[in-house]
Amino acid sequence: MFAAQGVAVAAVSTTVPAMASRLGLSSLAMTALTIALTLAAGVGSFTGLAAVRRSGPVAVMRAAVLTAVATLLSVAWAPGPAAASAAYVLFGLALGVIDVSVNTRAATVERHYGRSILSSFYAAWSAAGVAAALLTAGVSRLGWPVQYVLTAHAVLVALLALTVRPHALAPVPSSSSDRPAPDDEIPGRRVWARLVPFGVVLLVAYVVDSAVSAWSTAYLHQTLAASLATAPLAYAAYQAGTVTGRAGADLMVRRVGPVAVVRAAALLTAVALAGLAVAPSWPYAVVAACCAGLGVAALIPLCVAAAGRLRPGAPETVLARLNVFNYVGVLVGAGASGGLGATGHFRIAYAIPAALAVALVATARFFRPTEPGPSHAWTTRRPGSPHVLPVAVDRGRRP
């Protein structure tokens, strides 16, 4: 399901210039459409929360992904700007529902494994994004119109969704520490306060992610004079970087801890964005986009995992609220980048997030595990010993 979502998002992101040309829309109009899609995704996040509580994450995620397929086809074959705009908004709603349902299920699976594995799920998302971007570039080079490009993506998403089968999870041994404290029964100020540090990191990460994924294709085409067939390569390189980073992020978390991983990731992201801002030609921008993906790769899954542990009995509640930071980041990143790009200042759009990424170093301390818990223990090995030992995980409460 993460892969299906990755293909769907990449399909929309890599066809922005082609859809603008087909519909006769200006860059500012496409920016407004992207903002509307993002706002719709925020609404879909809370809609997904209600649906998950009623029907469970597996059924909801499948229905939402199939809805995304239908809306992709609607975008592709929309007869005019009004119909296309409505289809984009419906796609955003489906995307928000997917976010809550897949992350709820993933957080629950990680809890059952008792170790860091969420980055591996996001690696599947990124790998699918790479494949989708390369598909866009390949069929564009063949001269296919954008309608057929999006239809090919929709078919791929549908095939991924239809192959998914649910699997029962083994019961986790319960303990008194697993039960939420009385003041955590209903999320309020305390949960929000504990969520803010992770939300800030997620917000900046999505500013970076949306600035690169939503507008790198347009940046290469408009500012660096890349062709429509070449321009999607920056998106593909960015997602290739995230695949590489996420494939190794879980192992790095187990070896050096999440604090060191967050600090290193933030600094690498800042350097890569600075390189993207000053790139003299599109090949340099492609390399910088890859490095940006490598840096930002671990930040999003680590935030989701940490937030999900705040209320392990009901992760969907916290994750729906965490998605507020997600979509604010997407809104700011996509809106600001598109607005600056429309006025010919794409380079500034990548320089500003570089400074924000440096500031994330100060938030890394909030990812430090501090409290043991039998069903939430991460696993590691004592040097020189083959035995697996539990490592504390922070759930925000004293023993």
Automatic annotation (TrEMBL):
Membrane protein topology class: Multi-pass membrane protein
User: Region Disordered: which residues?
Assistant: 372-399
What would you give as a GO molecular function for this chain, any one?
transmembrane transporter activity
InterPro entries (UniProt xref): MFS (IPR011701), MFS_dom (IPR020846), MFS_trans_sf (IPR036259), MFS_Transporter (IPR051788)
Which spans are transmembrane here?
Answer: 30-52, 59-77, 83-102, 122-144, 150-170, 191-208, 220-238, 259-278, 284-307, 319-342, 348-367
One GO cellular component, as annotated: plasma membrane
Supply the SUPFAM superfamilies for this chain.
MFS general substrate transporter (SSF103473)
Ranges of residues in domain Major facilitator superfamily (MFS) profile: 1-372
Q: Which UniProt keywords apply?
A: Membrane, Transmembrane, Transmembrane helix
This chain belongs to the protein called MFS transporter
What does UniProt list as this organism's lineage? Bacteria, Bacillati, Actinomycetota, Actinomycetes, Kitasatosporales
